[in-house]
Design goal:
Number of strands: 9
Strand order of the largest sheet: 5-4-3-6-7-9-8
Number of helices: 10
CATH class: Alpha Beta
Shape: globular
Order of helices and strands: HEEHHEHEHEEHHHEHEEH
CATH topology: Rossmann fold
Strand content: 15-25%
CATH architecture: 3-Layer(aba) Sandwich
Structural class: alpha/beta
CATH superfamily: Vaccinia Virus protein VP39
Helix content: 25-40%
Number of domains: 1
Largest sheet: 7 strands, mixed
Distance between the termini: 41 Å
Length: 324
């Protein structure tokens, strides 16, 4: 089956079964929750109601409507130029991580504030914590190297009354991931990470140009960043491959601090090196889960250093009381 046009949501089969965005967007329903969206809704060439996904203001209005309607987020905004993520794909990651935890817990998703998740690179949008807390009641720590982004995320958390559920932590060293964030003796049930995709600013700009052209709205040499993104959100030295290797190295240094370490991997070329790094690090179990939303394909890679006995102890100590 060919990939769907970029202005249409993915067919149901491509998104997680619990994803709230498996069907086409119901724009009248979204407008009823967020009237400001109405100004951006038009009939597209396929005869469907849609928004111009090359317009960053329209994309933000759609996100605001989705977050308000489906996740109870009454107040959501981002500073100009910061990443405005596609909600369905972000929700998919959260649900797949919930499945990982469930598979390690007799098929029951651990829920509630006793479950702690670390979002590496929370960004100004704070999407993963907002979705994960609503869907499963998890508590989150969101880290970031960008003080402006972290401050914006904390303002979103406060505006929505979620300060007890979502904590922000500034990573003081851009060369580090978990160092300086995970405290001595602190544990998390899972980590999330959407690593910088590109290896340089020039590569990021070229990627934006391709994406804009794919949307059919190329606007010359300075394309509109419809989903935005600051340098730390889009690129890092060595790109995705170097970043995930750093994740593996720092997770190896704290093998019992987390049950499931996870990361998204956008480039399939990154996978062989990541799997080698995990083997060399001594990961006892790894999983690679394919994900897709429309034309975009990615993978979730997860690993744990916990032995079966340690996993059983973890379940008894942290998850068993939530059963029933």
């Amino acid at each position: 089956m060919p990939s769907p046009p970029p202005n249409r949501p993915a067919p149901q089969g491509l998104l997680h079964p619990r994803n709230r965005h498996r069907g086409r967007y119901d724009f009248p329903q979204l407008i009823s929750s967020s009237p400001a969206l109405a100004a951006f809704v038009r009939t597209n060439p396929f005869g469907d109601l849609s928004v111009d996904f090359a317009n960053p203001v329209a994309v933000k209005a759609l996100n605001q409507a989705l977050l308000r309607h489906f996740y109870g987020v009454a107040h959501w905004d981002i500073p100009a130029g910061y990443l405005c993520p596609p909600i369905p794909g972000r929700a998919d990651y959260v649900h797949h991580v919930a499945d990982l935890l469930a598979a390690s817990n007799g098929g029951v998703v651990p829920r509630g504030p006793g479950v702690r998740v670390l979002d590496v690179g929370v960004g100004a949008n704070c999407i993963y914590p907002l979705i994960g807390h609503h869907e499963y009641g998890w508590q989150f720590v969101g880290s970031d190297i960008d003080a402006v982004a972290l401050r914006a995320a904390q303002q979103l958390v406060a505006a929505n009354g979620l300060a007890k559920a979502i904590e922000g932590r500034l990573q003081p060293d851009a060369r580090r991931v978990f160092d300086g964030i995970i405290g001595p003796g602190e544990v998390f049930d899972a980590t999330l990470c959407n690593p910088p995709f590109h290896a340089s600013a020039a590569e990021a700009a070229a990627g934006t140009q391709r994406k804009t052209a794919n949307l059919g709205t190329a606007r010359g040499p300075r394309p509109v960043l419809n989903f935005g993104g600051q340098a730390a959100e889009l690129w890092a030295p060595g790109g995705e491959a170097a970043f995930v290797r750093r994740l593996v190295l720092e997770s190896q240094q704290r093998p019992t601090a987390c049950f499931w370490y996870t990361t998204l991997v956008s480039k399939k070329e990154t996978l062989p090196g990541l799997h080698r790094a995990l083997h060399q690090a001594g990961a006892l179990e790894t999983q690679t889960i394919d994900m897709a939303q429309g034309q975009k394909k990615s993978r979730l890679v997860a690993w744990t250093f916990l032995t079966p006995a340690q996993q059983a102890a973890w379940r008894r100590a942290r998850w068993s009381p939530q059963r029933g």
